[in-house]
Amino acid sequence: MTTTLDRTAPRDPATAPPARLSLTPATALAGQLDGAWWPYSRDLEAELPALAAALDETWGRITRVTVNPTRWPAVPRTVAMAGHVLHVGWFTEQDPDKLILLSYTVGRWDLLVVPPETAPAAAARLMTAAAIPGSVLTAGVLMANEAVIGRGTRAARRREAAWEDEGGACMPTLGDPFGRSALPLSANGWR
């Protein structure tokens, strides 16, 4: 997949859509993830300001972010924020589906990154699962589980489409619908 980023387009933070977040409620149960983020694009420079602004009130000022560069076409070193600069780093050892946020005063948070092209139903499942307090599921496991669910959903849709295309009748491999006998009907309609 190739992604092209338009760096010449003017950016107005006031018109940027709000960050799509699902955060783990404050509890004593620590889990693998602190929630999920569903960006609108793979442009970190455009997406990070809204994310950091949404978390500033809840978690304090975010000062650093780390990502795995395999999911992002460009990883800027810094991103300008209102009143400060957000430093961005990358590590190939980090889970590609996870974003780590750091604050000097409060700590660290790990968020599942839901790919921007994800269907809304799948994104809702992922964001809900990532925000379960005390969950031991990692970002990679959640994404793998969703891939399996997605394949099952697509297969079910194909079966339903085949059912509808056949007029609602299912033909087994032997051509005998529903295992009925090929005997002609008797005068009273019974076989």
Describe it for me?
The protein has 191 residues and is an alpha/beta fold. The chain has helices at residues 44-59, 120-130, 139-165; strands at residues 21-23, 35-37, 64-67, 78-80, 85-90, 98-103, 107-113. It has a seven-stranded mixed sheet. A hairpin with a 4-residue loop joins strand 4 and strand 5 (85-90). The longest helix is centred in the C-terminal third of the chain and has 27 residues, at 139-165. It is elongated. The chain starts with 20 loop residues before the first strand and ends in a 26-residue tail after the last helix. The model is unreliable at 1-11 (pLDDT under 50).
Integer average pLDDT: 82
**Which structural class should the secondary elements be placed in?**
alpha/beta
**Shape descriptor:** elongated
Question: End-to-end span in angstroms?
Answer: 58 Å
What is the overall number of helices? 3
Question: Biggest β-sheet, characterized?
Answer: 7 strands, mixed
Helix content: 25-40%
Provide the β-strand percentage band.
Answer: 15-25%
Question: Low-confidence parts, pLDDT < 50 over ≥5 residues?
Answer: 1-11
Strands in their spatial order, largest beta sheet: 1-2-7-6-3-5-4
Sequence of secondary-structure elements:
EEHEEEEEHH
Radius of gyration, in angstroms, nearest whole number: 24 Å
Please count the beta strands (DSSP E, at least 2 residues each).
7
